[in-house]
Amino acid sequence: MRSSIFLVCLMCLSLTQIHVSTADLVDDTCKQTPNNDLCVSTLHGDPRSSTADVAGLAIIMVDTIKTKATATVAQINTLLGSNPDPKTKNGLDGCLMIYSNEILNTDIPSAMEGLQKGNPKSAEQSMNNAANDADRCEGAFAGASPITSFNYNLTDLSNIASAIINLLF
User: Fold this and answer.
1) Residue 169's Cα: distance from chain center in Å?
2) φ/ψ of residue 118, rounded to 5
3) How far is 102 from 123, CA to CA, in rounded Å?
4) How far apart are CA 138 and CA 155, in angstroms?
5) Quick one: which of 17, 61, 114, 129 has the fewest CB in 10 Å?
6) Whole-angstrom Cα distance, residue 138 to residue 134?
7) How many C-beta neighbours within 10 Å does residue 167 have?
8) How many CA atoms lie less than 13 Å away from 151 in the CB half-sphere?
9) Is 35 exposed, middle or buried, given 0-12, 13-18 or 19+ CB atoms closer than 10 A?
10) What is the distance, to the nearest Å, from the Cα of residue 76 to the centroid of all Cα atoms in its chain?
11) Cβ atoms within 10 A of the Cβ of 139, count?
12) Rounded (10°) CA dihedral 94, 95, 97, 98
């Protein structure tokens, strides 16, 4: 009987240690990124982070960027459907090409492939490209951009992903 109680206590202690270690990994990893708060909230918001290693955290971040980029494309299409003025339309058209062709069809798949094939340098470069592409989109407007918050968020997340991937070197 005592050995059964000891075994149950040992298992509970082990599970607690695993949970604490994973939370520590997220916190320790995010401290090494340019935006600790956004990193922590993003990773803790995904249940996969509870069992992920650093490479897994990088994959979660790239998946998050894909979700955000897809939402940005939807917002651009909504804005284009509202008959914007010609300057805004030109900026939105340019951003639609950047997000659709470069971020979603090149940068994100290349980053994911690099992570899955053990080539973190390639993955890091792809995330740097995604950040630069979002910045380029922001600069496509002659004046205020109607998608500034989307662009800044994607830039921030891409820079975080790049920093996490850099830890894999």
Assistant:
1) 19
2) 75, 30
3) 14
4) 10
5) 17
6) 6
7) 16
8) 21
9) middle
10) 20
11) 13
12) 120
pLDDT band of residue 113 (cuts 50, 70, 90) is very high
Q: How far is CA 18 from CA 81, 101, 129, in A?
A: 49, 41, 35
For residues 120 and 134, give the distance between their C-alpha atoms in angstroms, rounded to a whole number.
21
Average pLDDT, whole number, for the chain? 90
Tell me the one-letter amino acid at 91: G
Q: What local confidence, expressed as pLDDT, does residue 1 receive?
A: 55
Torsion on CA atoms 163, 55, 12, 7, rounded to nearest 10: -140
d(CA 111, CA 121): 9
**Which residues, including other chains, have CB under 8 Å from residue 48's CB and lie 6 or more apart?**
56, 60
* 109 compared with 22, residue with greater pLDDT: 109
- Of 93, 91, 162, the C-alpha closest to 131 is 162
**Is residue 22 very low, low, confident or very high in pLDDT (cuts 50, 70, 90)?**
low
Position 60 pLDDT exceeds 90: yes
Q: CA-to-CA distance for 132 and 30, rounded, in angstroms?
A: 21
